[in-house]
Specification:
Glucose Oxidase, domain 1; Enzyme I, Chain A, domain 2; alpha/beta; 754 residues; 45% helix; 8-stranded parallel β-sheet; Beta-Lactamase; elongated; 8-stranded mixed β-sheet
C-alpha cells in the first residue's frame, strides 16, 4: 500500500484522467478503472456498483467473477453495498459476513474474501453508486486507504454522471420516490413547481485540479475571508458575554480556526482535487462520521461544521448570492430555512409559485408579503433542504400545510384536479364581487384590501373590495437599493390613487426597522435583541424627520384635489400621533406657500398595535378620523410572543378570549366616540375569525384580496345579532376550546368558512 492517501489518490486520479480522455465505450472505461484502482491500492478485488432503475447493479469488477457484471443487483439497504448507498455511510469490515446486512451472492464468487471496505459514490449529496475493495485476509482497512477510496469515488462520480451511467441516487434519508411532508400553514393556496434553493447549493462540476498550488491559494483565500466573516459576527453581535448565541458563535469560531479541518482539505488538494472538490470530499467524510454519533450535542456541533463547510464552498466558488440574483427559469417552489420580506420581493412573481420554509411564522412580515403576493407558504418543514434536491418537482398544498416531493403521476393528477376545484371555488367567489357584504339581518360590513404594490391597486375591481384599507408604503423601500426619493414615491402613490379611481386608499407611513431593516439606513440599534419592539415604524420616522417630510410631501402632491387618507403605525402614546400629524400639517402649509398642489381633504388615522394605546383612547379618539387595529403586532405584544420565533408560530390562537375581549373593549370605545374602527391584520382575512370579530362589533375589515370572496360568502350567510349573542356567551364564560365551539356552531348553521 502507498505510504500516503494523497500519493495513492494522485496516481489513480492521473490514471483516471487518461482513461476519461481515451476513445472507448463507457463499459470499457469502467473495466479499465477497476483494474487501475486494484493495482494502485494493491487490492485483490475492486468493484463498482451503480444505481440503475432503482437497483444497485454491479457494473465492473476486478477480482470477482466477470459473469456477475450486470447480473448482480441489490436494492437500496440490501446487503453491504445497499446499506452504504442508502445511508451514505462508509463500511470498513475485517469480516464482511459477520455484518447483519451481509447478503451472499453466489454468482460473484466472493465467498473466499473476508475483509470489505466500501464508500458511496456521491453526486449532489445523493449516492449514485458504491466503490468497494475486498481482500481474502481478514483485516480492517487503514484510514489512509479509506480516504484514498473516497477521493477516487469523488472523481469517479464526475465520470459516471458525464457518461450518464447512473440514475438519480438516494434522496434525503435514504428514500427514493414521492415523499409527503407536513408543516405549518402560513399562506393558503395550491401550487406546483420545481425545487429551487434560496441559497443554491454549490455543485462541484470539476474535481481534478490542473494546478495544485493555484487550488491551494484559492482555499487559503477562502479561509481568510470566512474567518473574517465569523470574527465580524462575533465582534458585532449584541448578545452579551454569556448565553446560547455567544456559545454558538464561539463554536463557529473554533471550527473556523481548526487547523485539523484546513489540513484535511489541503491533503485532499494534494491528492489532485480542485478546491471545491477537496472541501466537498472532507465534508462527505464529516457526514459519514455523523452517522455513528449518538451524542445529540456532538451531532449538533458536527452540523455547525457542515454549515461552515457550505459557507467555505460558496466563498471559494464565488456563489455567495441567492437564487434571486441568477433568476428563476421555471415555475418555482422556493426552499429556504427562513426568508425576510425584502428577500422574497426580489423574486420574479411570474415564476415564484410557492415557498417552503424549515422555520417560518404565521405573522412574520415575510408571510404577510407572501400573502399580499398570493404566494402559498408552508413553514416548519423540517429537513426539507435534505429531502429535496434542486430541480425536484414539488406539490405545495398550503390549505392543508403539506408538500409532496417527487410526486408520482397519480399524485400529480389528483393534485391538479384539486387545483381545478380550487379555481372553480374562486370563480364562485368571483360571482359575489358585485354583491354587497350584508348579513341576513341587514348589517353592512365593509371589506377593503391590504396592498403594498401598484399592481395590487389594479386588482381592486377583480376582488370586489371597496378600497385599500392599508397600503404598506414600506414595500417600495424594501425593494430599493437606495432610499427612494420624493419623486419616485410620488410616482408610486399617484399611480395607486389613479388605479383605485373613486375607491379610497389608506396610506400607512413607512413601517421599517425591526425585521424590515434597510441596509442603506443601517443603525447600530437595528441589531437589538427584540427588534419588533425596537427602533422601528413611527419611532424611527419621527427621529429621521427628513425621511417623513419627503414622504409627506410626496403623498400630499399625489393626492392633489382628492381626499388623502393617511395613518401612522405603531403609535404607543397620543403625543407620537400628535407629533406625526403636526409634521404633516407643516408640509401642507409649506406646499400652500410654495404653490404646490394639495389634497382637498386629509383624514388622519392611527394604528393600534401597541397595547398601551388602548389605555389612552379617551385622549386620542377626539383627534382621530379613523382607528385601525393591526392584529399581527398586537397579538405578539399581548402575549409577549415574538412572531418571528418558529417555536411560537402556532402557540397562541387569534380566537383567544383574551384577544377578543381586548378588541371588543377598543371597538366599543371607538364606536361610542363616533370614530370608525377597522381591523387590518391577518386575523380579519379568515372567515371564522372574521365572524368572531363581527360578533364583538367590528364592521370594517382590510384583508388580503384572496380573502375577500370567502369572507363575503360568510358575511352574507350569517345573522349578525345571532353571532353577537353566541360570541358574547363564549367570551363571558371562556372555554379552552373556543375555536372548536364557534366552528361547530357555524357548521350547524351552515355558514361557509372557506
Amino acid at each position: 500500500m502507498p505510504l500516503t492517501a494523497a500519493s495513492a489518490s494522485r496516481e489513480i486520479i492521473v490514471g483516471l484522467h487518461d482513461v476519461m480522455a481515451k476513445r472507448m465505450s463507457a463499459q470499457a472505461k469502467l473495466n479499465t478503472v477497476v483494474d487501475l484502482i486494484a493495482n494502485k491500492l494493491r487490492s485483490e478485488v475492486c468493484s463498482i456498483y451503480l444505481l440503475h432503475d432503482g437497483k444497485l447493479e454491479l457494473y465492473a469488477t476486478h477480482g470477482l467473477r466477470v459473469e456477475a457484471v450486470h447480473v448482480t443487483r441489490l436494492s437500496l439497504s440490501e446487503g453491504l453495498v445497499g446499506t452504504i448507498a442508502a445511508e451514505g455511510r462508509i463500511l470498513n469490515l475485517d469480516e464482511a459476513a459477520s455484518h447483519p446486512a451481509f447478503a451472499y451472492r453466489p454468482e460473484t464468487g466472493e465467498e473466499r474474501f473476508h475483509s470489505f471496505a466500501g464508500v458511496p459514490i456521491v453526486r449532489r449529496e445523493n449516492a449514485i453508486g458504491v466503490l468497494a475493495v475486498q481482500h481474502a485476509e481478514p483485516r480492517c482497512y487503514e484510514d489512509i486507504e479509506i480516504e484514498a477510496l473516497q477521493t477516487v469515488a469523488m472523481v469517479l462520480s464526475e465520470m459516471i454522471v458525464n457518461a450518464r451511467l447512473a440514475d438519480g441516487g438516494r434522496r434525503g434519508r435514504g428514500e427514493t420516490g414521492a415523499q409527503r411532508i407536513a408543516g405549518l400553514k402560513l399562506v393558503t393556496g395550491m401550487a406546483k413547481g420545481v425545487a429551487v434553493f434560496h441559497q443554491p447549493r454549490v455543485v462541484v462540476e470539476h474535481t481534478v485540479a490542473d494546478d495544485i498550488e493555484a487550488e491551494r491559494a484559492r482555499v487559503y483565500s477562502a479561509f481568510r475571508r470566512m474567518r473574517e466573516q465569523i470574527d465580524h459576527m462575533t465582534r458585532d453581535a449584541e448578545f452579551g458575554t454569556i448565553g446560547e448565541h455567544n456559545e454558538i458563535l464561539e463554536t463557529y469560531k473554533m471550527f473556523a480556526y481548526d487547523e485539523g479541518w484546513s489540513r484535511r482539505i489541503n491533503e485532499a488538494i494534494d491528492s489532485g482535487l480542485t478546491a471545491e472538490a477537496a472541501i466537498e470530499r472532507v465534508q462527505q467524510r464529516t457526514r459519514a462520521r455523523m452517522q455513528d454519533i449518538d451524542d445529540p450535542l456532538l451531532k449538533e456541533r458536527m452540523h455547525d461544521l457542515e454549515d461552515l463547510s457550505n459557507r467555505l464552498l460558496r466563498i471559494v466558488s464565488g456563489r455567495m448570492g441567492t437564487a434571486a440574483k441568477t433568476g428563476l427559469q421555471k415555475d418555482t417552489v422556493l426552499i429556504a430555512r427562513n426568508l425576510g420580506p425584502a428577500e422574497l420581493l426580489e423574486y420574479d412573481r411570474r415564476r415564484l409559485k410557492a415557498v417552503v420554509l424549515e422555520e417560518g411564522s404565521l405573522t412574520a412580515h415575510m408571510t404577510i408579503v407572501a400573502r399580499a403576493m398570493g404566494v402559498p407558504v408552508v413553514g416548519k418543514v423540517e429537513d426539507i433542504r435534505h429531502v429535496a434536491s434542486e430541480g425536484d418537482p414539488i406539490l405545495v398544498d398550503g390549505d392543508n400545510a403539506t408538500i409532496v416531493v417527487r410526486p408520482t403521476r397519480a399524485l400529480t393528477q389528483a393534485f391538479e384536479q384539486r387545483m381545478a376545484m380550487s379555481q372553480k371555488r374562486r370563480a364562485q367567489y368571483a360571482t359575489l364581487k358585485n354583491q354587497p357584504a350584508i348579513t341576513t339581518d341587514g348589517a353592512r360590513i365593509s371589506l377593503m384590501v391590504n396592498a403594498g404594490l401598484a399592481e395590487d391597486a389594479a386588482m381592486l375591481e377583480a376582488s370586489g373590495a371597496e378600497g385599500i384599507g392599508l397600503f404598506r408604503t414600506e414595500f417600495q423601500f424594501l425593494v430599493s437599493a437606495a432610499l427612494p426619493g420624493r419623486q419616485s414615491q410620488l410616482k408610486l402613490y399617484r399611480s395607486v390613487l389613479d388605479l383605485a379611481g373613486e375607491k379610497p386608499v389608506v396610506f400607512r407611513t413607512v413601517d421599517i426597522g425591526g425585521d424590515k431593516a434597510l441596509p442603506y439606513l443601517a443603525d447600530a440599534r437595528d441589531e437589538a435583541e427584540n427588534p419588533a419592539m425596537g427602533w422601528r415604524a413611527l419611532r424611527l420616522s419621527l427621529e429621521r424627520a427628513t425621511l417623513m417630510k419627503a414622504q409627506a410631501r410626496a403623498l400630499l402632491e399625489a393626492a392633489s384635489g382628492r381626499t388623502l387618507n393617511v395613518m401612522f403605525p405603531m403609535v404607543s402614546e397620543p403625543w407620537e400621533y400628535e407629533e406625526a400629524r403636526a409634521l404633516f400639517e407643516e408640509q401642507v402649509e409649506w406646499a400652500k406657500k410654495s404653490r404646490k398642489p394639495v389634497p382637498k381633504a386629509i383624514r388622519y388615522g392611527a394604528m393600534l398595535e401597541v397595547p398601551s394605546l388602548a389605555e389612552m383612547l379617551d385622549v386620542l379618539l377626539p383627534r382621530l378620523d379613523f382607528l385601525s387595529i393591526g392584529t399581527n403586532d398586537l397579538t405578539q405584544f399581548l402575549f409577549a410572543a415574538d412572531r418571528a420565533d418558529p417555536r411560537l408560530a402556532d402557540r397562541y390562537d387569534w380566537l383567544s378570549p383574551a384577544i377578543l375581549r381586548f378588541l371588543k373593549r377598543v371597538s366599543d370605545q371607538a364606536v361610542a366616540a363616533g370614530v370608525p374602527v377597522r381591523v387590518c391584520g391577518e386575523m380579519g382575512g379568515r372567515p371564522l375569525e372574521a365572524m368572531a370579530l363581527i360578533g364583538i362589533g367590528i364592521r370594517n375589515f382590510s384583508i388580503t384580496p384572496a380573502a375577500v370572496g370567502p369572507v363575503k360568502a360568510m358575511v352574507r350567510a350569517i345573522d349578525a345579532q345571532e353571532v353577537t349573542a353566541r360570541v358574547g356567551k363564549l367570551i363571558a364564560a371562556p372555554a379552552p376550546d373556543l375555536r372548536k365551539r364557534l366552528s361547530d356552531w357555524a357548521k350547524r348553521h351552515r355558514i361557509p368558512l372557506g
